[in-house]
Amino acid sequence: MTNNTTKPPLNMVNVVIFVGFPIAALILVPFWGMYQGYDSFQWLWALAFLYLNGMSITGGYHRLWAHKSYEASPALKWFFAFWGAGALQNSILIWASDHRRHHRDVDDNELDPYSAGRGLWFSHIGWMLREYNTNDPDFSNVRDLQRDPIVKWQDKHYVALTTFMNLGLPLLLGIWHGDIIGTVLLVGLLRLVVNHHVTFFINSLAHYWGSRPYTESNSARDNGFLAFLTYGEGYHNYHHIFQSDYRNGIRWWQWDPTKWMIALCARAGLASELKRVSNFKVQRAILDTTFDRARTKLEGAMHSESLSEMLEREYQLFTESINQWTALQAGRYERTKGQLSDALYEHKQHLHQKWEVAALVNKLKTLEYGLKMQRKRLTLLMEQVHFHQAQMA
Ligand SMILES: [Zn+2]
Ligand SMILES: [Zn+2]
């Protein structure tokens, strides 16, 4: 009997890949290890493949194609197209289409193909095992990528490409090394399974576990430990609010090898137009979230009037800073435009304009600093709220 709770049919190809391969790896890899053993050549190549595949997904599929957070030269695109196919996560076109839907309708169980609202298992791997209608191909959101000849070519030859990268290359490596089975097991199978799961952590764990400093409007979390496993993609709360930024971990010390790779490629002339969100906007997002959180805490709970008043005063200051910043940015834009059309202005005029621009930049910097200070005051204020609430309890 069929009813509404009947699950859609299994996708057998995906079941083999996502259930069969891990089971095979769990049995065969240790078995061969005990029987024959592995050497450092095989381990090192497995690690190299892991990073080449993983970072072609994060730097290529994700940040370049799905989000257009920078421009890449054809050589770099080809590199990502090959090694990304080796990650066995579908073609760029399908991957990016799913991912753009994930961002647009995040947490929507009907529209987000790997909505975290449907549970940890579903968002990790379950969504691929059955023919859910959220997986129906709809390329209306990747028209730009359909015009990219490299993306088109990769999509057309995807099966041959991924077979060559996953089986052909490890096989050749094994022939060269003299141990075909061991090399295929480690560089082919184990590496593939590990890369699958660490990439899937971004859809599952990074929507459950971690902090939400930039926005609470969706389930995405920042998690330094996951960033370490996921080539830098663990700063997922930041990524969901500022998806066009080529970085996910924006502080210099945050582990984000993908952002370092992109920056390095830019230095080598392989990447350009790296997009970054301004520091002010980042501070603004953090403050917005902190204000929301503070208000919710104060609401309902017994609290002193003076704390609420202080919070509202701070909020007013915050709004004023935002307005000033917006006005100054608009002014800066106007001035730059003016500078372009008045290129033949006399030297004196030019110097004057330069000075004005410098003064503007200074003002913007001061505003930015103001927000930083406000964040500190707000933290103190929240500590007072906690203290007050503890006393009332
Ligand atoms: Zn996400
Ligand atoms: Zn994304």
Topology summary:
Layout: H1 12-35, H2 40-66, E1 71-72, H3 74-85, H4 92-104, H5 120-129, H6 143-146, H7 149-156, H8 158-177, H9 180-203, H10 224-229, H11 236-241, H12 257-267, E2 271-272, H13 279-298, H14 305-341, H15 347-392
Antiparallel strand pairs: 1-2
Helix pairs in contact: 1-9, 2-3, 2-4, 2-9, 8-9, 13-14, 13-15, 14-15
Residues 102, 207, 220, 236, 240 line the site of one zinc ion.
Q: Kindly estimate the percentage of residues that lie in beta strands according to DSSP.
A: under 5%
Number of spatially distinct domains? 2
- Please identify the structural class as seen in this structure: mainly alpha
Q: How many helix segments? A: 15
Shape designation = globular
Which ranges are low-confidence, i.e. pLDDT below 50, for 5 or more consecutive residues?
none
Termini Cα gap: 55 Å
The ligands found in this model are: zinc ion
Mean pLDDT: 88
**Biggest sheet architecture:** 2 strands, antiparallel
Helix content: 55-70%
Strand line-up in the sheet with most strands: 1-2
| Order of SSEs | HHEHHHHHHHHHHEHHH
Whole-number radius of gyration? 25 Å
- Compute the number of strand runs: 2
In short:
By secondary structure, this protein is mostly helical. It contains 15 helices and two strands. It folds into two domains: 12-49 and 74-221, no CATH class; 279-392.
Can you tell me about this structure?
It is a single chain. The chain contains 15 helices and two strands. The protein is an all-alpha fold and 393 residues long. The protein folds into two domains: 12-49 and 74-221, no CATH class; 279-392. The protein has a two-stranded antiparallel sheet with strand order 1-2. Bound molecules: zinc ion (2 copies). Residues 102, 207, 220, 236, 240 line the site of one zinc ion.
